[in-house]
Write the structure tokens for this entry.
Amino acid sequence: MNDTVLEQHSFGAEVGRLLDLVVHSLYSEREIFLRELVANAADAVDRRRFEALTDSNLAPPPEAKIRIVPDKEASTLTISDDGIGMTRQELIDNLGTIARSGTRAFAQNLASSKPEDRPSLIGQFGVGFYSAFMVADRVEVTSRKAGSEEAFVWASEGAGEFTLGHAERETAGTDIVLHIKSDATEYLEPIRLETVIRKWADHITLPITVAQDGKDQPANEGTALWRKSKSDVTEQSYKEFYRHLGHYFDDPWATLHWRAEGTLEYFCLLFIPGMKPFDVVDNDRDAHVRLHVRRMFITDKAELLPHWLRFVSGVVDTEDLPLNVSREMLQTTPVLARIRKALISRILSELKTRTKEAEDYNKFWENFGAILKEGIWEDNEHRAELAPLLRFKSSTQEGWTSLPDYVSRLQEGQDTIYYLSGDQAEALKTSPQLEGFRAKGIEVLLMSDSIDSFWPERLDSFEGKKLRSVTQAAEDLSKGEDLPDVSPLLLAIKGALGDQVADVRATARLTDSAVVLASDGKGPDLAMQRLMRRAGRAMMPSKPVLEVNPRHKLIEALSAKLENTELIAEAAATLLDLAQVQEGDLPADATAFARRVTTLLAGSLG
């Protein structure tokens, strides 16, 4: 470090606790620090190569590599790369803010996760760099951005602050110097370092060397794993490559490895994760499969897969594109369109095959089913293929069931697939909406993902059977039913509620409850309306229908009190509020609702 004025900075909020969690709770193996730093260095070189496609002045040297230099006398370990480098602000943004996707969410997820699951938090929250503090009591990062003449040094002892100042570096890239702790000197031994590299980073195509006796010794094979024959790749190699790609620590649920030959030639290695990300509130809906051209990384934003397969990671390496392919070409070339079609087909085929092992497939569904259902909504081409892959909870079955299974259990004469969507499947099981269907032994599929309010409309039918929300199916249960005539009461309730409801009508679909809400049939069902309201995107106001159970004792009692208009008005308002509560909504006027309920309770106890 040269003599310069150093700026003192504080880390982002909660850093002290988070660094302690990273160092003492997150990793079970200290050697992981080297994997994290080497992976970051490799990514930096990949980014520089990509930027050089449009600006040749940024190209890394032909002999670009990751160089690891242990120094026993100084007790330092240096990891150097020829990557894209960082500006002063990028050093602050990337190294001065822990868990940029949310420090509080990171801590909460760590606290609630099982010990064996904690390492997978690394990739989700971007904290891999800080694993360096497991073996170092001080870390210095000197970096020069490609295309810039300035270099800067970032340094920290892993407490609440870091320093930042000007530095010298002859070329673009980054040097990370770890001041090794007294109990971690094993990582100053070249043989130990080579062992760790071969275990965790042998698949990285960029050369990695470890300095020993004044010479740089190769430490990784550096072979493009996806170009090998499947028979030449071990299960462990697949796992380590998968973990490198997404900074995961679990095992892949599925590994798809093949080579396409003929009019189009490419190599493909794809993974479906074994667990869902911890950071489930992720607004990035793009898939990030990496595109390579003749082993050279080009971009992970080529849209090789649709949004609804964004959980898939991997590499596609083609011979049919030029190395200097532009971003514009990526959007228009038919080569990528054909590869994309082949990838989707192969993944759907794999999922279809795996459905034969129900328990195994259900694990996948619980992790990524909500994302896969987006394909029903937005992808007309693959909608029919996706439908049999869907899984649901049911009002009559235990565990998960499918649309083909539901159709196989249809009652004689039943030509409709009924479903109910809401916030929680367990809560839906007790919904008044199901009473009439349960009484007639009709199965209802229970859906509790947000997307469930959208996709059934697009699918419309399955094997010739229409999909219908139970909130829009009142007439299906009324056929052949002889109900008591409570029309005077219905008119009185409608008059009392006015424009709060589209209608008030008798229904045969209730057995225990007095009232229930229904859609007026002219717009989206209740779940969709509720979702749009919560998202602040209410469309044209759609008023619900209040359905009344004429066989309920309360309704019978009210029918005998029609002359008491004040009582009917109070009862009408309370019944509407109760129906809204049953649907998981708050009454329009919670205070008035509480007052009415209190008055009714006081009267019943008086």
